[in-house]
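From the shared-data thread, chain only:
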Amino acid sequence: MEKPVKKIKEEVVQKELFGQPLLPFRFFPDLPIILREKMMKVKMIIYLACISILGACSTSGEETLLQPVTQAGFQRVTFTRENKNPYSIAVFREFNHVFLYQKTLNTGWTGNGQLTTELPIGNYQFLFALHYGQNTLLSPELFPNETPFNELKFLSQQDPDNEGLILPADELFLPETHADSIYHITASSTIKCTLQRAVCQTLLYIKRGQKTDDGHYLPIAYENNKNILQSLSSINMNLQQTGTATSVNAVSTGQGEILSDFDLSAPDTLTTEGFAVFKGPFFFPAENNGEITARITLEPATNSPQSVLTSTVTSNLQRNQQFIITIWVTNDWNFINVEADTREMNREIEGIKDIWDDQVN
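Structure, as C-alpha cells:
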C-alpha cells in the first residue's frame, strides 16, 4: 500500500531542503506583506520542484533500493553453443531498414559455451561463422555503420601458382538454415546457434584388386610391409565446376577449378592391406548443387614400365558432403575402374540434432 503524500503546512517551524532550513515567515515579522507573499510563492515553487524530482525516482512513497542493471536502452544477450569450437559473431543493427555492421564478438566464451554481451534495443542480424580468412575471405570488408548484411558473401581466392584456377576453400562453417534471421532485441535474450559445414570435401581411396564375375571388386592385400604408394611417384586431382563463392545461407555461385597434389609420404590413412586414403580439398558445391567433375592422375614410380593412369568421375554434391572416389588397379598396374559415392561428413562439430535452433525471449 502506498504511503500518502504528506501536505506541507505553513505552520511547520522548520523544514530542510538539501540540508538547509526553510523558516516560516513568522520568523520575519518586519517584512512588508507584498514581499512576504512573493517569498511564499518562491518557497512553494522550490519545494514543489523538489517533490517532482523525488517522485521521478520512485512510484510510491516507500523507500526504493537500486539494483545493478544494464545501461539504459541496452539489453543483455547471451549466445550459446553445443560444441567446443567457439565461433565468431558479427553484429548488424537495423538503421532505416538496412542492417549495418557494428562489431564482431569472438572472445569471451565461457567453459560451458556461453558468450554474453549488451546490445542497444533494436532489430539485428548476426553472421555466425567458423574457419575462414585464409583461402576463403569474407566480402565486403567489415566497416562499422557502413557494411550491410545483405551484401555479405565468402569468396575463394585465386591460385597464385596456377593461372585461372582457385585455391581450395577453408573448412567454413555457417548456420544450416535461417542464417539471415532477424532478431528483435527488446528484452534479455538467449540465442542458440549450431553450425554446419558450408563446403564439400573429396576423399580418395587407392586400392589394388580384381573384378569378380558378378561385377564386384575383390581387394588384393599387400604383404611384407609393402603398400600401393610404393608403385607411385605422384597423385593429383583436378576438380572442375566447383563454386567460387557462397552467401551467408550457403548458396554457391560462380564456376571454378581446383588443382591438388597429394603428398605420398603422408597419406591420411595407410590400411593394414596396404591401401592409401587421402582427404582432398574443401570446395564450394556447384551452383544449384550441379555436377562436379574430378579428374585423377596416377603417375607410376620413377623408371617404372607402367603407364600413367587417368580417370574422370562426376557427382552432384551438397554442402557438408564428401565426394568419395575409389580407384581400383590390378596387380600388374592396370586400371580397373573408378567408383564415386557421396555421404554426409562427420557432424561431431556441428551437432547431431537441432542443426539450427534460435530462441529470442
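The radius of gyration is 36 Å.
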